[in-house]
Structures are given as structure tokens and as C-alpha cells.
Amino acid sequence: MSRTDVVQLLYIVAFALFIYGLMGLTGPRTAVRGNRIAAVGMAIAVIATLLIPGMGNWGLIILGVAIGTAVGIPAARQVKMTAMPQMVALFNGVGGGAVALIAWVEFRHSGGYQDEATYVGIFSLFAAIVGSVSFWGSNIAFGKLQELIPGRPISIGSGQQFLNLGLLVVAVACAVAIVAGSDAEILMIVLLLAAAVLGNFVVLPIGGADMPVVISLLNAFTGLSAAATGVALNNTAMIVAGMIVGASGSILTNLMAQAMNRSIPAIVAGGFGGVVTTGGVGDDGVEKTVRSTSAADAAVQMAYANRVVIVPGYGMAVAQAQHAVREMTKLLEAKGIEVSYAIHPVAGRMPGHMNVLLAEADVPYEQLHEMDDANSEFPRTDVALVIGANDVTNPDARTKPDSPIYGMPILNVDDSHSVIVLKRSMNSGFAGIDNPLFYEDKTSMLFGDAKSSVSEITEELKAL
Amino acid sequence: MLLTNLAILVLAGFAGFLTISKVPNTLHTPLMSGTNAIHGIVVLGGIIVLGLGVDGFLNKFLLVIAIAFGTINVVGGFLVTDRMLEMFKSKPKPVEAGKDEPEQIEREAA
CB-based contact (8 Å) between A21 and chain B? Predict the structure, then answer.
């Protein structure tokens, strides 16, 4: 058996492990193992690649891997659980960036694919465009989630779609010219730049609320570009791994979009959020009022309840309030009050975000109720405590057909007997729309940082 | 060679589709993060192109960056996913819960 055969054999082992690992990742019990199995597959794939006959430039390869490890490990270790979504965006982006850079070097090295079969150029250029879009798009997604750039849609208006189409045409035209035989490097550079600007322009007009779906979509894109690079380099492991991610990523994107009742084309078309910003003025133009409350009142209200449901949202994540919340609920439970958590599938900025945070704070799993269970419990609930959640509790989604979130399944907290909302200010939520829940008679608002509000309530509860 | 690769491409696509049919909402984020780590496979591309020899400073420089990017994608991706999933591991349960393991898993999957 030649060395090349060994490499191929190891690749087969590697991608079998990828698929097996991915299967594990879809079930809660097997997920940790699944992820590790996939990681082992990756290690095998890298080792196999290093065994390819004729390998050289070891110093530089080691340098690249060392830099990547030195950056990647601390980044992954130190990132706070709340910042997980943007970290995934960033990791996805660098993957796309790697694809684009590899394609560029392939172009330079082969003299504009002159010495290669036509298909190599086609796949490599496809990878270059998609990888570049993914890199820049992911960076914008990161910037939006990290709040380096505003979360609300940024767009030049109706011309945006045409401009994006134009950029895509430019990139594809450059690719066609290169495949047709031109070896001018300027074409490649224009292609990469057009795709880069396109990546920026595609994600900028998308509202922050849709960002999880966008990251998932870009993840699938990077997978496809990796598969295309694999075809260009005739590398089985890259083809299989890239394509699996491309396919599973698209399904996952669809699942996420469904959970938010959004269609993927509508998301990509952008403009969600900031559409209806009526502020404190109702449909009839009358100024609506909110009732604000104090930590002491909130504590009393909950202490005399039979049943309290906590509705966590991004505000809890930002304030890192999960441990404080856990401490408060322990006190409530000690008073014989039934406490549960209502988890909206897209509460926070990523599906499952709240589950991760609450699990970190040792909240027992059986207290976390998913949307359908929770909704059947609200009518029997005395106090619904909304901690930094907004859009997922907005009754407009049920009642107001012209609302941008109309039709999105929500947590019907307004079914409960009373509602306490912990919120930093009256600013609208991530989707940038007003929430009539806040103006209801049964709702009282406790303004302030979620963590300090919860701690204050806890102190008051102890004093009771 | 192209046709074989295209066959692999198509089959891998279906494998990907079939693997992810039913996923509980809770696992969407870790799954996205896990698949994200897998496309870090692009690091192989960087290693192959650099290892099999390119000339010129710029080419080498770009590939070192590409390998670093790919490594960040792989190492960071798997580690972050692992950290997220660790949170779901069963913890010492409160006494009053008293539920046994299978039921707990049912809940998670629901």
C-alpha cells in the first residue's frame, strides 16, 4: 500500500468520524461525545494531510498552526457564555477567510489556473467568492452582536438590492473572464473585493434579531466553499466535511428560521427591525403610561404568589444575572412557591442560549419549560417575571397583523395574573419594535440592570 | 477524477441532510457551533498548497494566515462547542426532583 493510499484511508476514517460525531450532536445525551469524536476525526485528517508525499515548508506550516492555536484556545476558553454567538460568528468568518486566501494563492501559483483543468478554476473561484462573502458577512454579524456597530438595519434604501446584485455580477464576471483564459491578477483582486463589499452589504441591512439565522446561513456557505476548495484540490476529506456542513447548515438555518416564524429570503432581504417605532404613543395617538415598581414591591408580590414563572431574555445574559436569578428562585422555593422558567426557542440571540446560561447557574433541567408547555401554564401563574426579554413576549405577534413580528410564536405572559418586567430602560427590543405588554394594567416595570434588580429583590425577599 | 469527486460531493450532501432531521431547539446553538468547527477542515487546503510548494513571499505569507485562520476555526470551534455542551451535562439534582436519568433525557429531547 502506497503512502497516498494510507492518506486516503485515513481520510475515510476522518470523514466517517465527522458524520458519526455529527449524528451524536443532534441528541442531548450523546452531544458531548459527538463533538469530541468529530474533533478526533479532524486530528486524523490533519495528520493524514501531513503524510502526503512531497510535503515541505514545515516551518511555515508549524508557524501557521501555532499562531492559530495561540489565538484560538484562549479565545474559546475565555469567552463568556453570553458572548458565545458572536464567537461562533468570528470562528465561522476566519474559516471563510482561509478559503478565500487559499483560492487567491492558487490563482497566483498556477498563473491564473493556466496549468490546471477548467473545473479547478471554476471551483476555486466559487470558493473565493463565497469564502470572501462569508468572511466579511460574519465579521459584520460579530460587530452587530458585540454592539461595535448598531444592531438595527443599516441600508442605503431601495437601491441596496440592485447594488448587491451589481456586486455579485462584477464578481462572477471576473470569475468568467479568468476561467475563459485571462491571467490578470487584477481580476482576482476585484473579484475578492467585490465579494468582500457584498458580504458587508448583505449583512448590514439585517436586523440584530435575525443574526442567529444569518450566522447559521454563513456557516453553511463556508461549508460549501470548503467543499469547493476540496474539489479544486482533489481532497476527499475537504469535500465530504465541507459538503456535510453545507447541507446540515442549510437545514439548521431553516429550523432556526421556522422557530422565529421568518423565511430565509425575507431575512436576507433585510430591513427587519426599526420598522414600527411608535415609542410610547399608541395607535390612537394617546400617550400610554407604564407603571414602574420597586424591588420591595416586586419581592412582596412574588412572596405571596403560589406560582412564579421566570421569562429570561437577552437582558439576563447581558447582565450575567443567571446566578442571581438562581439564588432568588431558591429563596422563593424555600417559601413553598412553585417556580419554573419559560424558555422561548429564540430567547437571547441564539436558540438554546438561555438553556446554556441557566444550566451554568445549576438550574435543574426539569424547571426549564419550552414554549408550548409554558404557554399552557401562564393562565395558572400568579407572577410572570420577565427578565430582559422583550420581543418574545410581544402580544403584537398574535394580534397585530401589520407588526413585523406578526405570526411569530410568543410566550403568552399576558395570560398570567400579573407581570413584572425587569428592563434597563423603555428602549425597544432587538427587533426595534414597541411592546404593548409594558402598557398593560397588570404589568409593572422594574427599571435597572437585570442583575442588580434581581439581587435587590433577593435582599428584600430575605428580609420578608 | 472530477466525476468521482462530484459523486462524493452529492452523497456527502445527502448524508448531511439526513443527519440533521430532528434536533431539539436546545441543541441548535451547539450544533451550529459544532458544524462550524468541522468546516475548519479548510486548514487542510492551506497545508496542502503550502506544503506541496509555492514560491514567493506573498504566497507563503497568505498561506500562513490561511492556516492560522483555519486552525482558529478548528481549535476554537471544537473547544467552544465542548464548553457549551458541558453545561448540559447532568449536575447533582435537587432532592425534590428525584427523577431518574431516562426521564430527564426525555425532557431534554422534548
Answer: yes
Could you say which DSSP state residue B93 is in?
P
Where are the alpha helices (H) located in A51-83, listed in sequence order?
A: 58-78
Is B63 in Cβ contact with A101 (below 8 Å)? yes
> Position A228: which residue type?
A
Closest by Cα among A188, A193, A190, A196 to A111: A188
pLDDT confidence bin for A281, thresholds 50/70/90: very low
Rounded Cα gap, residues A178 and A121, in angstroms: 8
Which helix (H) or strand (E) segment is A339 a member of? strand A338-343
Q: Report in angstroms the alpha-carbon separations of A56 from A65, A457, B49.
A: 15, 64, 10
Binning pLDDT at 50, 70 and 90, where does residue A71 land? very high
**ipTM for this model:** 0.82
**CA A70, CA A217: separation in Å to the nearest integer?**
28
Nearest CA of chain B to the CA of A385: how many Å?
A: 21
Each residue's pLDDT tens digit, A101-143: 999 999 999 988 988 899 999 999 999 999 999 999 999 999 9
Are A443 and A407 within 8 A, CB to CB?
no
Catalytic residue, chosen from A283, A372, A391, A415, is A391
Considering the entire predicted model, what is its pTM? 0.76
Nearest CB to A29 within list B42, B78, B105: B105
